[in-house]
Amino acid sequence: xxxxxxxxxxxxxxAAYKALDLIRRLKERGHSVRAILTPxxxxxxxxxxVGTLTAEPVFQDLFDLTAEQDVGHIRLARDADxxxxxxxxxxLLAKMAAxxxxxxxxxxxxxxxxxxxxxxxxxxxMWAHPATRRNVDWLRGQGVAFVGPxxxxxxxxxxxxxxxxxEPLAIVAAVEAALNRDRPQPLxxxxxxxxxxxxxxxxxxxxVLANRSSGRQGHALAAAAAAAGAEVTLVSGPVSIxxxxxxxxxxxxSAREMQAAVDAALPAxxxxxxxxxxxxxxxxxxxxKIKKGAGGPPTLTLVENPDILAGVARxxxxxxxxxxxxxxxxxxxxxxxxxxxxxxxxxxxxxxxxSPDSGVMGGDxxxxxxxxxxxxxxxxxxxxxxxxxxxxxxxxxxxxxxxx
Length: 404
Prior knowledge:
The chain folds into two domains: 5-180, Rossmann fold (3-Layer(aba) Sandwich); 191-399, Rossmann fold, CATH 3.40.50. 33% of the residues lie in helices and 24% in strands. The chain has helices at residues 16-28, 47-54, 72-78, 90-98, 104-111, 124-128, 130-141, 168-180, 216-227, 255-265, 308-313, 333-344, 384-399, and strands at 5-10, 32-37, 58-59, 82-88, 116-120, 145-146, 150-153, 160-164, 191-196, 201-204, 207-209, 231-236, 248-251, 270-273, 280-282, 302-304, 322-329, 348-353, 365-366, 368-371, 376-378, 382-383. It is elongated, with a radius of gyration of 25 Å. Residues 187-396 form the DNA/pantothenate metabolism flavoprotein C-terminal domain. Keywords: Decarboxylase, Flavoprotein, FMN, Ligase, Lyase, Magnesium, Metal-binding, Multifunctional enzyme.
């Protein structure tokens, strides 16, 4: 998904604290976020905390002389791909339904032509009140989308029910669904398998053989495939980044666990092997922590891990129509990628330079080359998100009318 501009209206409820995590989650996915903080919301979260997370000015006052010199509330309302209200209080919903415009938030909401997504949060009695139900029904009829509320404990001691704001990741999923609603979905009806991240091969209960893969490129590919309409299974090694929205995630540790998860996820129309699978594992890992001793370091006997990419690419039955591997190299990138393409039997190799000075491992940008049996296509440096979108678009075009 290309970077989208989100206008976040933070309403005055105790759930406003979740808006801080929501901002972080949206930014992680490459979206830009501007925030309007209502006066009541400023009682729960500070402009400083919101502005620090958005890296943008925080807008609060309809009559701010600086912001309103160019009719700022109209600019805010129009310069957004999606308006998100979180928390959407009963008061904000009522103002929207009545068409009121007596503060910056309600004025921007009345002036926007962008889609609106509301995440309600209020006491269960307020949510069930006929006035709120009427307002929500009317707003739905006008095209406003809703996520939540959920059932759970309230801020009021000992009270629970339907009224909790949805968790940030659920809101992110709704945001991305709303943004993708009118976009082409060239992989609609397709099944896509993606592997991502490193594998950890145990030495003993506290030590592993591992690598520096962050999983950012693989996770971005899974997200891009989902945005293109695919049913996506992401098999992920140990990573510290969030799961992509709208994707089935299978979490594994070792190469053998990843192989089993990949086999279970087939058949698929497209298999993308972006994980940095460890080539070797310890022949027999220790059941107890290995201690230092007078004899010096222990001798570790290594054996080869299963070749997951080659195993799928060379399947006699049930081979995906398009199998894509990745070649992360530190030298002779294209030569090694061509060799890997021939050895593995896959259709394409996405080659990239991961030498220490490239900044690719753990970074946000990538420079890749698409290697096939016929040609090498070198791409300019892009964000990993942009690389993922471009690759998924290319894979969708290559799939044409074939399916598993």
